[in-house]
Amino acid sequence: MRQGKPMDILDAAFVAGATKLGQLPAPAFAEVAFAGRSNVGKSTLINRMVARKRLVRTSGRPGCTRAINVFRVTTREVTLDFVDLPGYGYARRSKAERASWGPLIEGFLQYRPGLRAVVVIVDVRRGLQEDDYQLLEFINTTPATPIVVATKVDKLPKSKMKSELMKLTRDTGLDVCGCSGETGAGREDLWARLLKASSLVQRDA
Q1: What distance separates the 2 farthest-apart alpha carbons in the chain?
Q2: What pLDDT is attached to residue 102?
Q3: Exposed site from 6, 34, 65, 108, fewest CB < 10 Å?
C-alpha cells in the first residue's frame, strides 16, 4: 500500500440528504460516491478518511444508510463532496424499500453531473459478491471512475492480506486499495486515488 503526504482535513460537514434524486442540491464541487454492501464498514471508512469520529452515522446493525447523504470535505488544498450511498444486500429491509434503492443508486450514478469516482467497498475477508459485480458493471457504463477498496485489512495476517488483495485485483481487473477504517491503513493511498480520479492535485508542502 502506497503512502503519500498525510491529508490534512480542515472541515467536514453534512450538506444534504435525500431519498429522491430531485431532493439533492446541484453539485458545487467534484463528487466521490461511496457504495457497498450493508456490513462492509462504509461509514467507518468515510469517517476515517475525513478524520472525524461521528460525521457519518455508524451502527452495529447493518443497513442504517437509507438515503443519499452528501458531506463537504475541505482540505488545505481542495474541496470536494463525499456522497454516502445506501447500503445494499441487506435482506431484513422490506422488499419495497430494497427495490427503491436500486433506481435511486443507479439514477445518481448515471445522471449526477458532478460525479467523478465511485468507491466500491468490499470486506477483504468475504471478497466480491454478486451485487458488487453488478455495481461495477453498471459503473462501467457511466463516466465515473470505479475504485475498489477492500476494508478490514487489519483483521487478516499481513501475508494473507496480500494474497486476498491480489485475488481481488485479478477478479476486478483494477488495482484494489486495501484499507482499514479502524487503524487508518491505506488512507493516504485512497486519498491519492480520489484526487486523481477527481482531476484534483494535492500540492506539495
Answers
A1: 51
A2: 77
A3: 6
- pLDDT band with cut points at 50, 70 and 90 for residue 63: very low
- Can you read off the three cell numbers belonging to residue 83? 456522497
Report CA-CA distances (Å) from 33 to 13, 122, 167: 15, 14, 24
Give the count of domains, the chain: 1
Please report the DSSP string for 103-163 in residue order: HHHHHHHHH-TTEEEEEEEEETTT---HHHHHHHHHHTTSSSEEEEEEE-GGGS-HHHHHH
In a domain, 2, yes or no: no
Residue 204 lies inside a defined structural domain of this protein: no
> Is 114 within the bounds of a domain?
yes
145: containing domain: 9-197
With CA atoms as reference, report the closest residue to 124 among 92, 153, 90, 166: 153
pLDDT, average across residues 103-123 = 94
Query: In the chain, which ranges are E strands?
Result: 9-18, 31-36, 68-75, 79-84, 115-123, 145-151, 177-178
Distances (CA, A) of 7 to 29, 58, 92, 191: 18, 22, 37, 7
The yes-or-no verdict on residue 86 having pLDDT over 70 is: yes
